[in-house]
Design goal:
Layout (H helix, E strand, L loop, with lengths): L7 E5 L4 H12 L3 E6 L2 H7 L2 H4 L4 E5 L5 H15 L4 E4 L14 H29 L2 E6 L12 H20 L5 E8 L5 H6 L11 H12 L10 E4 L4
Parallel strand pairs: 1-2, 1-4, 2-3, 4-5, 5-6, 6-7
Helix pairs in contact: 1-8, 4-5, 5-6
């Protein structure tokens, strides 16, 4: 299992439910991973990964909605590992609110977490990927990006922006051997989602590990013909 052997990856939000699954999958495939976090508890829960991958994982505290911190993250990654081959923009959030009730701060939070973070990280990693004529960027969009529905206006708008951003960047860098794609999950089977929706049929939800395998593929050289795509990962939902 060496699809990503010796590749250098940044996984934003790499200590969360989905991010951790991606980080583990990348490490198992031979990548070296810089894993960003904000919540100290999540980092602590991920520290056992260093036991078997001591020299292959770095935890970096970074608010990726702030460009200065993004620049520091990328600079430090290049300083340590000499390149950045893969960027997975996992950082994001969800809010449920009808548009007539949505506060400006809620709207801004969705745009910042889901869209601005992907923009800033992609923008600032691209010069290095262009210079080395190689790179893979995978963004996390969402099924609601394809069709708005009641109660998820701010969220779906931000995720639609992620999908459009993916297509835009893919077109801009297609001559530099850089692939930019997105995955579109439905509801992800996480502890938080189970708590929030206890009556749901969890068996229909897509598991983080399943999404991680798709992202491994999109981050590998096998994905070379795929660029600017939005890949549905709905599970049975």
């Amino acid at each position: 299992m060496n699809a990503l052997k010796n590749k250098i990856a940044i996984v934003t939000g790499g200590t969360g439910a989905l991010g951790k699954a991606i980080t583990i999958a990348f490490l198992e495939e031979g990548a070296k991973v810089v894993c960003t976090y904000i919540v100290d508890k999540e980092k602590k829960e991920c520290l056992p990964l260093t036991k078997n991958h001591k020299d292959k994982i770095v935890f970096a505290r970074a608010d990726v909605t702030k460009e200065k911190e993004v620049l520091n993250l990328i600079t430090n990654t290049i300083r340590k590992f000499k390149s950045v081959d893969i960027l997975v923009n996992v950082v994001g959030g969800f809010a449920y609110s009808y548009i007539k009730d949505t506060e400006e701060k809620t709207w801004d939070l969705m745009i910042n977490l889901n869209l601005k973070s992907a923009f800033l990280c992609s923008k600032n990693v691209l010069p290095r990927m262009i210079e080395q004529n190689y790179g893979k960027i995978v963004n996390i969009s969402s099924r609601p990006a394809l069709k708005g529905s009641a109660g998820v206006g701010a969220y779906s708008a931000s995720k639609a922006g992620v999908l459009n951003l993916t297509e835009t960047i893919a077109d801009e860098v297609k001559d530099y051997n850089i692939n930019v794609n997105a995955v579109l999950p439905s509801t992800i089977d996480t502890p938080a989602n189970r708590r929030d929706m206890p009556e749901a049929d969890f068996s229909k939800w897509v598991r983080p590990e399943e999404i991680a395998r798709v992202i491994v593929f999109l981050s590998s050289d096998d994905s070379r013909p795929i660029n600017g795509a939005g890949i549905p990962v709905y599970g049975k939902a």
